[in-house]
Amino acid sequence: MARLKVGVVISGRGSNLQALIEAARDPAYPAEIVLVVSNVPGTGGLARAEQAGIPAETVDHRGFVGRQPFEEALTGTLERAGVELVCLAGFMRIVTEGFIAHWHDRLINIHPSLLPAFPGLDTHARALAAGVKLAGCTVHFVRAEVDHGPIVGQAAVPVLPGDTADALAARVLEAEHRLFPLCLRLVAEGRVRVAHEATEIDGLGPPGAPLINPAPE
Ligand code: GRF
Questions:
Q1: 108 in helix, strand or coil?
Q2: Of 111, 124, 140, 177, which is the active-site residue?
Q3: What is the pLDDT of residue 208?
Q4: Residue closest by Cα to atom 3 of ligand 1
Q5: Structure confidence by residue, pLDDT tens digits, 79-99
Q6: Which terminus has fewer CB within 10 Å in the chain: N or C?
Q7: Cβ–ligand 1 contact at 175 (below 6 Å)
């Protein structure tokens, strides 16, 4: 079976990219990463791609006047590599409607909160300030509104007494590294349908036990 050709777009250290690279090492995984693009030169994620022997390019947004020419260059770079689906993995630029429309339902993002709670930045500090007992992450199809769009999957983790934003971020990040490869697999297998701005996923097993925090005594 042909594997889905995926481009991963990053801005930083690329730990989620790494999780996708590890998953795609398995020849049975239904997606292959054909290109990594960073908008920031010299990032850790680019080094990870090179280490894994995956083509990596930099499209530096600072070399363009305005978002649209930058995004057109990004799309061109992805398409020249034959990319069919784009994963945003720590891409720290807002994308505009033209890019989103071009990649409609072929563009997924990971966000470090249980959307629709805490879209935007500083999610962990905001979750702590709100006193939530569960935090987590979301993989979703990208829509024009920032951090919105049909949800493919979510992972929840407990917020623990004494948590700092950094401690919570580290716990959520571990969950991200499990969730993103799972969601990409489901999408690449063609099992995820978008209907009425939500997703339906074929052939799922029974759900896991509820995560309750505080843990029942
Ligand atoms: C992750 O927390 C991701 O959810 C957010 O940016 C961070 C990127 O981390 N969008 P990394 O570059 O994948 O390590």
A1: strand
A2: 111
A3: 85
A4: 90
A5: 999 999 999 999 999 999 999
A6: C
A7: no
